[in-house]
Amino acid sequence: MMKIVVALLLSALATSSCSPTRQAENIPDLNSTIKVLGYNSLALPSTAYGPGSLVTSVKGSGLVAPLNLTYLCRPDFAHAPPAIIDTAASADASRSLNSSFKLDPSTLTQIGLGASASYLDTVTLKLSNVSVEQLAFDDLETVRSTLGPSCKQIVADFSKKSLAYQTKQAIRADVTYSFKLKVGASAEAKGLVIKALASAFGGSIESDQGSTVSGKGLFYGLILTKV
To answer: Structure pTM?
Structure first.
């Protein structure tokens, strides 16, 4: 009987000690949440590559999420019409993304923070004003049909290689990054982190308040259609 009791106690202890780990593993990150919604996440959220944009992979080797894109044609040459807000999809995305997401320093290094990421202990991002923007397929066709000769040729060349895409739909949101520096990090280190965040997001960062940095209207997930 004593052996059975001891075995049960050890089993309970093992379960309780493993539980936090399992819970941590089950906490979704931002990219996986965007994937569940049916979108490809962007390696670097920005105001670029919205609906109507003609894009390709930076490395020219197909698309792998998180997306690292570049324009085939300048957006001011594409003349895309104003995007349509999909209210139902926006509500769905808002429910899923209305949360705080943790980012580890290695993730921030991947999006361009470089050495500044070494000063960080934790980073949390909070999305707000989430919306889904889209264009109809006839809108996308109109964009392509009104391109200038150079743009049309470039799109045709990349299309032959199956490397030409156009943004059909996008998740857009405002964001606030809150960060905690490692113990002993200086005010100079904090300044470097803020500067790196502002640089990484292409000037879309508004300002910092203490240990937060905010940005407006960044695209976080895209649905692309092959051209």
So the answer is: 0.76
